[in-house]
Amino acid sequence: MLNMRKYIYFDEISSTNDYIKENYNNLFDLDIVVAKHQTKGRGRLSRDWFDNSNSILLSMLIKPERDILIQLIPLVASAAVYKFLKKYVEDVKIKWPNDLLLNGKKIAGILVEAKYLTKLEYVVIGIGINLNDERFVSEIENKATSLFKVTKQKYDSTEMYEGLSDALRNEYMLFCNNQSDFLSVNRLNSAVINKDVLLEVDNKLKNVKVLDILDDGTILVNIDSQNKSFSSGEITLNKNYIEKE
Ligand code: BTN
């Protein structure tokens, strides 16, 4: 924590996650990279993450000294983003494992990437939050929202970067000290627990009921009349919820 940089800032970069992946040898644990605009922003499942310079685009590097249960990291990040957003808005929900919803529409996404050689070398947590967007491109207009759209206020990006950086570092340090409540934050504010949803399993969409999020970060669902847990998978909520692709 000593001499920690607030963050490394770029007006434009290909992707803050890619910058960290390419430069991790010269960066420190908990360094944060932010950008006003990304030319090759990436989302999960090889999707693009578009921005029009109105978003928070931020990535944090983790260089773990010991092995960590990597599948918990998206949930640690979700809890941090949840706590950060709750300072500004009500009705924030977490769509396991990586999306934050506001009034049922996607306001933020998280992309966690890791590299293993003989051991876990690094983890990058990338976060995109729709901040001052007044509108979105037509494909996602019905599925996405921003803080501005909900509160009708504009936000200072520096203040927001700093607030999110603090929230993320704090949540991760709590996790390292085994003091964290990130699992209960994910459970109590889940958009999917107790819901009938579609889960993509082996490239097929299955109707499942979500029962819980387990301590190892997996999701427990009832599928084909059996209870089974999954460590990853894309969930589609029914029509009351809409997600940004
Ligand atoms: C998703 O919803 O699929 C995850 C989106 C993650 C986007 C962020 S923006 C900052 C960081 N850099 C990237 O290229 N992606 C993540």
Please provide a written account of the structure.
This protein is of the alpha+beta class and 245 residues long. It has 2 domains: 181 residues, Bira Bifunctional Protein, Domain 2 (BirA Bifunctional Protein, domain 2, 2-Layer Sandwich); 41 residues, SH3 type barrels (Roll). It is 22% helix and 33% strand. It contains 5 helices and 12 strands. A 7-stranded mixed β-sheet has the order 1-2-3-7-6-5-4, with helices on both faces. α2 crosses α4 and α2 packs across α5. The protein is globular. The C terminus is likely disordered. Bound molecules: biotin.
- Name of the CATH first level of the largest domain: Alpha Beta
What is the 3D form? globular
The total of beta strands comes to 12
Rg over C-alpha atoms, rounded to the nearest angstrom? 17 Å
Topology:
Layout: E1 8-13, H1 16-23, E2 32-38, E3 55-62, H2 73-86, E4 92-95, E5 99-102, E6 105-116, E7 120-130, H3 147-151, H4 157-176, H5 182-188, E8 196-201, E9 204-213, E10 219-223, E11 226-230, E12 235-236
Parallel strand pairs: 1-2
Antiparallel strand pairs: 2-3, 3-7, 4-5, 5-6, 6-7, 8-9, 8-12, 9-10, 10-11
Helix pairs in contact: 2-4, 2-5
The structure holds biotin.
Biotin is lined by residues 15-17, 38, 41-44, 47, 49, 57-59, 98-99, 109-111, 126-128.
